[in-house]
Amino acid sequence: MTTFRDIRILFVNGVIVLLIFLVLVEAVTWGVASEVKWNFVKDSGGVLPYLGLLVRNTILPELVTIFVLALLINRIHRWVDPAFDSLTWKSLLLYQLSFLPALLTAFLIFIPFTQSIRYLLVEFPIYSFNSYWHKYIIDSYSLALYFKYLLPVMLIGYSALNISLMTRTLRNHPVV
Description:
Keywords: Membrane, Transmembrane, Transmembrane helix. The chain crosses the membrane at residues 9-33, 53-73, 93-121, 141-161. The chain is mostly helical. The protein has one domain (3-172). It has helices at 3-32, 34-44, 47-79, 89-122, 129-137, 143-172. The radius of gyration is 19 Å and the shape is globular.
């Protein structure tokens, strides 16, 4: 399998997991705080402008996060490529654990890229280097934001990894 194809598969799987995660988060927030959400929709100018804000402020910047995660997972996968002929529970667990350090530290790698895209999309057309540097770069390296990203990164990273692993395993060992 080529590197580009591996990255594309991981990216597509990550996007699918991101969209599922966002739908679940939206469903929960609408269920818990529907009045607050309706007020936000009204303040945004209606349902379509609200969806536009969701795409612009959340989905598009997080595509950068997923792309960086796909690159990182692909790089590590090339180092710890499991032998698919002897895949056991122990080897699978060790394979999964080999990605944990990268997923725990991926935040440090993707946050400047994700936040730069977010800045360009959110602050358009009025850009200020001071606002960009402090609000989108310096303030992004906080424990609060790290822990906010940790669960989605783990879910997206491990889901994309496991979907890719299952696909590759089934392709190498088709079920009759």
